[in-house]
Amino acid sequence: MKFQTIQIQNQTFLLHPTGAMFWKEKNILLIADLHLGKISHFRKHGSAVPQEAILKNFERLDAVLETFTPSKVCFLGDLFHSFINNEWILFSEWVSRTKVELLLIVGNHDIISPLKYEEIGIKLGLELILDNFLLSHHPEEREGLFNFCGHIHPGVLLEGLGKQRLRLPCFYQKENQLILPAFGEFTGNHILESTKKVKIYAITKKEVILIN
Amino acid sequence: MTQKELFTIAESWFQQQQWKSFPFQKQSWKAFLQGKNGLLNAPTGSGKTYSLWVPIVLNYIKDNPDYQTKHKKGLKAIWITPLRALSQEIKQATERFAEDLNTQLTIGIRTGDTSQKERAAQKRSMPDLLITTPESLQLLLASKRYDKTFKDCTAIIIDEWHELLGTKRGVQIELALSRLKTVSSKLRIWGISATIGNLEQAREVLLGHQSDALQNSVLIKANIKKKIKVKSIIPKEMETFPWRGHLGIHLLDEVVPIIKRSKTTLLFTNTRSQCEIWFQKILQKYPEFAGEMAMHHGSINKETRLWVEQAIRNESLKAVVCTSSLDLGVDFAPVETIIQIGGPKGVARFLQRAGRSGHQPGKTSVIYFLPTHAIELIEASALQQAVKHNTVEDRIPYLNSYDVLIQYLTTLAVSDGFYPKEIYHEIKSTFCYQAISEDDWRWILNFITIGSQSLQSYDEYKKVEILQDGLFKVNNRGIAMRHRLQIGTIVSDAVLTVKYLKGGYIGSIEEWFISKLKPGDVFTFAGRNLELVRIKEMKVLVRKSSKKTSKVPSWMGGRLTLTSQMSELLRKELYKASSKTDEKKSLELKALSHIFQKQQEESIVPGSDEFLIETFKTREGYHAIFYPFEGRFVHEALGSLLAYRISLLFPISFSLAFNDYGFELLSDQEIDMQQVIDNNLFATDHMHNDLQKSLNATEMARRKFRDIAVISGMVFTGYPDKMLKSKHLQSSSQLLFNVFRDFESKNLLYQQSFIETFEHQLEEGRLQKALERIENQSIVWKSCKKATPFSFPIITDRLREKLSSEKLEDRIKKMVALLSKK
């Protein structure tokens, strides 16, 4: 898998095809919109989404952790899709296997009690400011801070000759903001406009490609 | 009472109405009273309701001689109609006979429009005759102790069976009937159908494959021949007539004199948006029609629709612009003239519409055909032939619709539960599931109980539970409620109601159209220009706007295709055009001579022994157009097949477009057509296998999967105004399709989407025959300088499929390179 390296305010960030982003100097991995438990939630309500997709999320998590060996993982919200269900057990098992520090910036889907997270050793916060960077779930604009966030599930629509069209998830970077793509399986994306002022990095299963 | 005495009762009533009974009516009475099932082939407006309602009443009289004084309560007959709009009409007709005979029989309607209160009252005490829709019948099966409700039912009539056959609502009916045969021991099953090509098969689908009911049945034909005259509206100046388009507005001035000449005219359009536009444009240009003209389509509210229907009967309207919403039922004597705007795509539909005029016996029905673009005149010419030779197409019934079966089994589990052994036997006797294997059956039972094929420890799937005695049952109230809401939503997009800010319901509109509008945008709906104020809880709030320009919703669906019969007629007409002499050429073809000339200059007009391929380059890329003239469905399959085979030769990406005449492969690189011809890519060998692979490559199945996911309850859509708090349960069928592709490609529902893409609509062997025909033709490849008249309607089609054998990353990089050049 090929990733892209970008510089923001003299800091180095590696964009990974899974949608995760590694902050090199701080040794932190950022992951947005995992939506764990979504498949189980559907199944619990009578919609038979394939179970195999549940395990895929954890496989991908393990793979990025192995690639970057961060000291800390920060989830930018919507970590767990809905109420507690059996996927929580799988998640707790994964947490106990994982030796790194875990932090969750709470998103609109995160309705599980903070106590539950603390029980398994995950710290919670509404936002996090590190140097000149603001980590949040919803996109934020704040004087003097560069914002990393999720929530949107950004996607890009590409058009080519011969009426070709492609729709891909992407990293979406504005002057003072970078929106991460959704990391989870069984999550969709929302097409954002590409203008001269933004940089878009489309992701495929193998590569991260700068669009403009 | 003897049959003779019973008949006398009916006959004397007919005499009181100053009617004479038709032979087919008496045949139906007799067969019904003998306890037979059957299919009645009779057109609208022929008195078909009395062919079957009369014997139902007579049968009651026979069993209850003191019928005038004592009323035996309970459901005795069910009348199924595909359109709610028709139920009122049927109620009036049946009530008239029941009342005149002092039978005390009651008649009730139960559809989506029926209030909760009335439903509850019906549940306590059913009317003697229940008029309902396929969905509402399913809902009855989803209610507790439904077997008691249906126990003494003597008859079920499926009206307009031809409309249901070939749809999944038809499959719903097959399944409901398979259950009713068991719970209602005295049941007779009757269908009423307009003329279609496969009437015998229609009877078998209705009554069950090799069933006892089929053994004990009759097929009765009314044999009422209607005289139909088809007139094409040929533009005075062919030179300025457009090569493409689908509206036909440029012929508006030719239509007006026709409307003025006749008492009442119905203008049939193919889509609701076309209907809206025509209505607006006529009023804009001819304001004198205001008050004398109306519009009728499925999204307009019920009151308005009923008002329009009544106004037609009162002769207070000069013209009504409508869609297929006025195809069925309702008898409109004053209608003198029909205008069909754009190709009707099928002979049966065209004939049915023609039959809406000239209801007086012996009168000729006149139908005008208005082409929306030049090539459609060939279609007009083919329609003339079809009417002349009485060619009518088949309606192809569905086979193995797992989605509908899953919905049905859940329905039974929601009401009283079911034992698989009993139900397997029943569904196996239906036409749709005659070939279902025990493995598939087990798969489906696993699917509804454990949500997959093997039980996993951490799984919490919940839908149907298996009780100790083996009863399959839904116990969870939330699941039961969601399922009931879902039953009615076969194949429709999420629908929002359109209302004025101050209140007042205008109609309903598909969500995907509204989602493209911003507050303040103006759109045309129900003939009015409306400004979107906001969207709130599945309601679109609007106010009137005086703005002239507006967006018109283009409703999805309604993409029809030529049937094989029509395609053949079309080809024959076209081959006539290629001949040098004017002999045998119809008026329409002669009018097109200037287009044919243009086509000839740039390319050729193919004859019966030629297969034409055109290639040319435009700003959009390299176009290759193939002309099999086989109708859209065959072209979809053929186009995908060919694109797939070419993509094996070298990495290439295609965008595919299809219409009834041919298909286009568009690419950003030139296709080596000589190599295509040399490699004999039209060969029939490995056809089936290649087609399967092309399906995977094009993802055409994706679109089919949407309905399947909704019907089988995988995607929850809810109902307008009844939206549940289910935000965390919202997902798209697209996402679902992806997870199945990646994780569970053996899933029968996922597989079904592939089978339905080609096999359902594609009559057995039609593709094979097309390929064989092409093999015997000589391929004429024309490298053209620019787009030809024939190619125009295809290359401008925006609904496209894609197929690629290039690496995704390479495609992205090409697109990026293109962007940077801009």
TrEMBL record, chain A:
Question: Which SUPFAM superfamilies does the UniProt entry name for this protein?
Answer: Metallo-dependent phosphatases
What is a single molecular function from GO for this protein? Answer: hydrolase activity
Enumerate the spans annotated as Calcineurin-like phosphoesterase domain. 27-124
Pfam (any one)? Metallophos
**Lineage top rank: taxon:** Bacteria
User: InterPro entries, from UniProt?
Assistant: Calcineurin-like_PHP, Metallo-depent_PP-like, PdeM-like, Pesterase_MJ0037-like
Q: Which Gene3D superfamilies match?
A: 3.60.21.10
The protein's matches in NCBIfam families, at most eight in alphabetical order, are given as: P_estr_lig_assc
Per its record, how is this protein called by name?
Putative phosphoesterase
TrEMBL record, chain B:
InterPro entries given in the database record: ATP-dep_Helicase, DEAD/DEAH_box_helicase_dom, DEXH_lig_assoc, Helicase_ATP-bd, Helicase_C-like, Lhr-like, Lhr-like_DEAD/DEAH_assoc, Lhr_WH_dom
* Record-linked Gene3D superfamilies: P-loop containing nucleotide triphosphate hydrolases
* Protein source organism: Aquimarina amphilecti
Pfam families with a match to the protein in the record: DEAD, DEAD_assoc, Helicase_C, WHD_Lhr
Q: Which domain of life is it from?
A: Bacteria
For this UniProt entry, the molecular function terms from Gene Ontology, in alphabetical order, are:
ATP binding; ATP hydrolysis activity; DNA binding; helicase activity
* All residue ranges annotated as the Helicase ATP-binding domain in the record: 29-214
Task: Write down the CDD domains for this protein, in alphabetical order.
Answer: DEXHc_LHR-like (cd17922), SF2_C_LHR (cd18796)
Instruction: Provide the protein name.
Output: ATP dependent helicase, Lhr family
List GO BP terms, alphabetically: DNA repair
Alphabetic keyword roster:
ATP-binding, DNA damage, DNA repair, DNA-binding, Helicase, Hydrolase, Isomerase, Nucleotide-binding
Give the family per the record. Answer: Belongs to the Lhr helicase family. Lhr-Core subfamily.
Stretches assigned to the Helicase C-terminal domain? 251-410
Q: Which residues form a coiled coil?
A: none
